[in-house]
From TrEMBL:
Pfam short name (any one): TPR_19
InterPro entries xrefs: Methyltransf_25, SAM-dependent_MTases_sf, TPR-like_helical_dom_sf, TPR_rpt, Ycf3/AcsC/BcsC/TPR_MFPF
Protein's UniProt name: Predicted methyltransferase, contains TPR repeat
PROSITE patterns the UniProt entry points to: TPR
Lineage: Bacteria, Pseudomonadati, Pseudomonadota, Gammaproteobacteria, Lysobacterales
Keyword Transferase: yes
Length: 464
């Protein structure tokens, strides 16, 4: 006689429901506090108690993406959406994952589905505008940004995004004037949005309203005297003496605050090309990719160079001063090791460690390059290569200037002198467009240089 299984009574079922809800709330609190280890453990505990709990599936998916497991994240959120197919936040977050994985068409479909579920989902509408812009569908993007501001006139993010759109695609000064109005309104609505305040200062300077730009930074500095961003930007606008390089606290503050939207902003600017032009230039000097070199991505940011460098590397390391950017690079994947450190000191501590050091748009935050170049020379093995980009100052003089963007520009004569003085030879400097800014092409130097000496055989020495 077969024995029947014991069946849970109603009280047991009610307790299980109550227990998994309590655990879910604990998981959400841990997630909000950035305690990802605890949050992941608790989400999985919820799913043990209730295997089809859609919120646990959804937010565990968000967490997995944060930890660089984006494929797993997509599957978890898709599973959640099979259970609750009209959940706009889940569609929006799935779109965000596709967007951050450079799949704009898939992201667009998710955002449109979120808006079908909730026409007033302002985050989804703003994100839709972003991915339309990424796909160069500028008229549709402008219409979406306009709809966002019409639906949510007090949405600070919407004004900020519209300002960025107008500035990025400005065809005449009126667009910059409108961008400045948007940035000012964004900051008025959300005084915590210091990115909007910085963008306002840069845009005012581009409009030749230099006294107003300096006033923005002076007022900001008066309110926050210890904030390195207005201090640096005031110098960039000519309101104080320019430092020899951007201070570490400025770079860290700038990029930690920019980390979440950095790729979004670069994706929106389809002409951002520094990683590609740099690796293309290196390909002309290096042997065919054979996954044989020890490579350093110096100033790795969110890891845009990783997929381009990976074919050359047996060991690919990245270093950046911004912990927020390094976390994004870790989520993107492709590196064997990532570290948060000041670049010059990091190089000085690693003698003869690399066959190749690449720095895309990092030394634009260094005015005086000598110390960093000498450190790079020491960190390369004999015969090793350095490749980097700079913004070009088109003058015959030997000089550097700090620009209102907060970045430095260097003349060719200056670059030639300091690269040679650091000990490099076989120096080649070409010009290319690195990005567009305020509707204008930003010209850059693409610099290749080799450390003299017999090439170190691949396999000699340990990867750093």
């Amino acid at each position: 006689m077969a024995m029947s299984r014991p069946r849970p009574d109603n009280l047991t079922l009610r307790r299980a429901v109550r227990d998994h809800r309590a655990v879910l709330q604990q998981a959400l609190r841990a997630h909000q506090a950035d305690d990802l280890d605890t949050a992941e453990r608790l989400y999985r505990e919820v799913l043990e108690l209730h295997a089809a709990q859609p919120d646990a599936l959804h937010y565990l998916g968000v967490l997995c993406h944060q930890r660089g497991r984006s494929d797993e994240a997509v599957e978890l959120i898709r599973t959640a959406l099979k259970i609750t197919p009209r959940h706009p936040d889940a569609h929006n977050n799935l779109g965000n994952i596709h967007k951050e994985c450079d799949r704009p068409a898939e992201a667009e479909a998710c955002y449109r589905r979120a808006l079908e579920c909730s026409a007033g989902h302002h985050n989804a509408l703003g994100n839709l505008a972003v991915v339309l812009e990424v796909q160069s569908r500028l008229d549709e993007a402008f219409e979406a940004y306009g709809s966002l501001l019409q639906q949510a006139p007090d949405d600070a993010r919407g004004h900020y995004l519209m300002g960025l759109f107008l500035r990025s695609h400005a065809q005449h000064m009126e667009h910059l004037e409108q961008a400045a109005e948007c940035f000012g309104r964004a900051f008025e609505l959300d005084p915590r949005n210091l990115r909007a305040l910085e963008a306002l200062g840069v845009t005012l300077y581009a409009l030749q309203r230099r006294d107003e730009a300096r006033g923005v930074y002076r007022d900001w500095l008066a309110r926050e005297p210890d904030n390195p961003v207005p201090r640096h930007m005031l110098a960039a606008c000519g309101g104080a003496e320019a430092p020899p390089r951007a201070a570490d606290d400025y770079v860290r503050e700038l990029f930690d605050g920019f980390a979440d939207s950095f790729d979004e902003q670069l994706l929106k600017n389809l002409d951002y090309r520094a990683p590609q032009v740099l690796v293309e230039a290196l390909a002309e000097r290096l042997d065919a990719p054979a996954a044989a070199l020890d490579v350093l991505d110096a100033g790795c940011g969110t890891g845009l160079c990783a997929p381009l460098l990976r074919p050359y590397a047996r060991h690919l390391a990245g270093v950046d001063l911004s912990g927020g950017m390094v976390e994004k690079a870790r989520a993107r994947g492709g590196y064997d090791v990532l570290e948060v450190a000041e670049l010059t000191g990091y190089l000085q501590a690693r003698r003869a460690a690399w066959h190749l050091v690449v720095s895309a748009d990092t030394l634009v935050y260094f005015g005086q390059l000598q110390e960093a170049l000498v450190a790079t020379y020491g960190a390369l093995r004999p015969g090793g290569w350095l490749g980097f980009t700079l913004e070009a100052l088109d003058e015959e003089a030997d000089r550097v200037e700090l620009t209102p963007s907060g970045r430095y520009r260097h003349t060719r004569r200056y670059v030639e002198r300091v690269v040679a003085a650091a000990g490099f030879d076989d120096v080649r400097i070409t010009t290319d467009t690195l990005r567009r800014e305020a509707g204008q092409a930003v010209a850059g130097w693409v610099v290749m240089a080799q450390r003299p000496g017999p090439v170190t055989p691949v396999g000699d020495g340990d990867a750093a």
